[in-house]
Amino acid sequence: MFDDFFIRALVAGIGVAFVTGPLGCFVIWRRLSYFGDTLAHSALLGVTLAFTMEFNIALSVFIISSLIALTLIQLQKRTNLPGDALLGLLAHSSLAVGLVVIGFLTFIRFDIMGLLFGDILAVTVDDLLIIWVGGAVILLILKLIWKPLFASTVNYELAEAEGLNPDRAKAIFTILMAAIIAISIKMVGLLLITGMLIIPAAMARNISSSPQRMVIYSIIGGLLSVILGLFTSLEFNTSSGPSIITAALFLFILSLFNIKQSIKLKN
Amino acid sequence: MNANQNILVKLKDAGFKINDKWLVQGVSLQVEKGKIVTLIGPNGSGKSTTAKIALGIYKKIEGEVEKYTNKIGYVPQKISIDWTLPLRVNDFMVLTESLKNEIIDEALSLTGVIHLKDKNLGDLSGGEFQRVLLARAISKKPDLLVLDEPVQGVDFTGEIALYELIKKISDELNCGILLISHDLHTVMSATDHVVCLNGHVCCSGTPMDVAKNNEYKALFGEQASQILSRYEHRHDHIHTDEGKIKKN
Asked: Model-level pTM?
């Protein structure tokens, strides 16, 4: 069944969308889109490492992204630089180092475009396994930490006062972010992963009145984007990442009309 | 362990500082089941800080905090909620604990905001939001309620009714309450123990004790002292079953 590369890509993309939907909502609520970007940029370093040491790409990316996240937390504690400067510093330096290392790896044929923007041809049956098993684990953990994570997103002190341990939830969520980047890098490409996280969630925000609905709409938006994007990619021979993100943008624009309508109804 | 089984939270010589500036220092107090402890004091005297020490929000503190319960309801003085979240009153009620629908309805009815259940939290007025905050804190039937100016922005009649409600909840649930308030009149009738803060504990005891204290008089003025002492004789109303007040 998974012989056809396109079926593989579709199954992989659907798996990714199920996970980016809920995580993307938290990225928007907690204002973490630049944090997501930073982790995604650092993923390049993870990929190059995986090639040099002949190691599993997803695992390597996961480890490097987690390390970058930890580094960020330490830097925040030890320096007086503002958060966005630290994020920029880590994002661009890890991207730069990754590119420099690639320059040295002349013995490996490297599809850098595929890495940056996603390549549906590259999705193997093993990748499907990583996406679906990894994705299921991410969703399970997110469900377990949902209460403290959501409560502290609304108000940290309430969550802390009422015994929910928000710091632990936040640390676990950071690891989940690294994990989703690791499993979705082949599909969307490292430059566009944050788009996959925030655009469907932003679309969902426009049309939902409760957090649960926003999560559900975000998943649906992600699924539609993947399906639409991949068919476009196949039809016009475009990179999978940009095609998926463009489809997501299209849905976001549609959701804007819904707002206008509801405002009109109110008046 | 806990020698006195009724103690819910106990502060021993507790203090907290930010950047070498003490917000509050040397506070000792305890809240017991069924008792209302009220913190009073001028602005910046460390009332909210003391509450946050008791709640465990501030961790790097001086002195000791012993907490004997995790079933806590908290109404903070200031709450900033990010409106990037689509959040209805109903969602907010189950923020820290999942509750049955009837329990949510009951709590919202008690504070008089049941009609707002499906409204977006961002669309509420200050007083309405304050009532929702109180409803959320009591709905989980906590052992300890920490109320930091719980009726700010609530209209005058509502204020009295809410204080009566707080007193009633304390009796019914047998929970301890740590209350912060500026309103000496309304609070003192129900309070078991008053702690007067001014960066440190300036005096404490029953409302009568505190009213007689010279430091208290210096801090609040003679008039405030009269309010407190007069209060003992002000029983011009009775309480009906619904927790409402009926004038004699």
From this structure: 0.86
**pLDDT digits 0-9 by tens, A111-123:** 788 888 888 777 8
- Chain B residue numbers touching A163 (CB-CB < 8 A): 70, 72
The CATH architecture assigned to A5-260 reads Orthogonal Bundle (1.10)
Task: Nearest chain B residue to A163 by CA: give it.
Answer: B70
Contacts of A150 in chain B (CB under 8 A): 95
How does pLDDT run across B204-214, given as a tens digit for each residue?
888 878 877 77
Interchain contact, B52 vs A158, CB within 8 Å: no
Q: Do B96 and A160 touch (CB under 8 A)?
A: no
CB spacing of A162 vs B72 below 8 angstroms: yes
CB contact under 8 A, A161 and B88: no
| Cβ contacts of B90 on chain A, cutoff 8 Å | 210
pLDDT tier, B18 (very low <50, low <70, confident <90, very high otherwise): confident
Sorted by where each begins, the domain ranges of chain A are 5-260
Among A162, A211, A214, the residue with its CB nearest the CB of B96 is A162
* Nearest CB to B86; choose among A147, A153, A211: A211
pLDDT reported for residue B215 = 79
The domain over range B7-71+142-234 is classified in CATH as 3.40.50.300? yes
| Interface contacts (A, B; CB < 8 Å) | 75
Can you give chain A as a three-state secondary structure string? CCCCHHHHHHHHHHHHHHHHHHHHHHHHHCCCHHHHHHHHHHHHHHHHHHHHHCCCHHHHHHHHHHHHHHHHHHHHHHCCCCHHHHHHHHHHHHHHHHHHHHHHCCCCCCCHHHHHHCCHHHCCHHHHHHHHHHHHHHHHHHHHHHHHHHHHHHCHHHHHHCCCCHHHHHHHHHHHHHHHHHHHHHHHCCCCHHHHHHHHHHHHHHHCCCHHHHHHHHHHHHHHHHHHHHHHHHHHCCCHHHHHHHHHHHHHHHHHHHHHHHHHHHC
Please indicate whether, in this complex, the C-beta atoms of B91 and A210 are within 8 angstroms of each other: yes
Instruction: Work out the average pLDDT over A94-106.
Output: 86
